[in-house]
Amino acid sequence: MAGNERFVSGQRLHPHQDADYRASVAPQQRPFAVLFGCSDSRLAAEIIFDRGLGDLFVIRTAGHVVGPEVLGSIEYALAVLDVPLIAVLGHDSCGAVTATLDALRDGTRPEGYIRDVVERVMLSVLGVRDEALTDTDVAVREHVRRTVEHLAQRSAMIAERLADGRCGVVGLSYRLAEGSVGQVVARGV
């Protein structure tokens, strides 16, 4: 969060981005966090958190939807890299959330695999449907919250590490215009 404050204020340090550091992390990675977020081009994790090479293990999908590849990647970071923190990053003006709300409003379903993304986000949005249809941020926050819960429910490894205090999971929401990140939910931190 301190890195995000530097990003917002324009006081970035650009840590761990020089040739010497690149050489030092080449043999082995030791990220301090997994960042699982939306693939939106406007929120590159290392930039908005003022981090550098080797700091974050980044996984991105449209609408930060969870599938086996995501769970396997997170479990790899926990088991092999011993990463103690998982951050789920959503954001305002999310295309996947907007498409989901449009589908709710209009009763239409997108074509192709976009439908799969919308269906996965839909599971989060249905519980706050009425509020979300008038305030998209409600849908974004609920999807972040549900994703955090979903990770612990789907992965025995994440649940076990949460239970024994070896890992924490935090849900965050990014504001595109301001560049700021706020906490939505936290488990084990």
CATH topology name, in short, is Beta-carbonic Anhydrase, Chain A
For the record, what is the CATH homologous superfamily label? Carbonic anhydrase
Overall spatial form: globular
Number of helices, counting only DSSP H or I runs of 4 residues or more: 9
Helical fraction: 40-55%
Question: Which structural class matches the secondary elements?
Answer: alpha/beta
Q: Report the end-to-end length measured between terminal Cα atoms.
A: 14 Å
Determine and state the CATH class.
Alpha Beta
Provide the spatial order of strands within the biggest beta sheet: 2-1-3-4-5
The topology string of helices and strands comes to HHEHEHEHHHHHEE
Q: How many domain units? A: 1
Describe the structure.
This is carbonic anhydrase. Keywords: Lyase, Zinc. Belongs to the beta-class carbonic anhydrase family. This protein has 189 residues and is of the alpha/beta class. It has a single domain, classed as Beta-carbonic Anhydrase, Chain A, CATH 3.40.1050.10. It has a 5-stranded mixed β-sheet.
List the helices and strands and how they pair.
Layout: H1 2-9, H2 19-25, E1 33-38, H3 45-48, E2 56-61, H4 68-79, E3 85-91, H5 95-106, H6 114-125, H7 129-134, H8 136-154, H9 156-163, E4 168-174, E5 181-187
In short:
This protein has 189 residues and is α/β, with parallel strands linked by helices.
Task: List descriptors.
47% helix; Carbonic_anhydrase_sf; carbonic anhydrase; alpha/beta; 5-stranded mixed sheet; globular; 9 helices; Beta-carbonic Anhydrase, Chain A
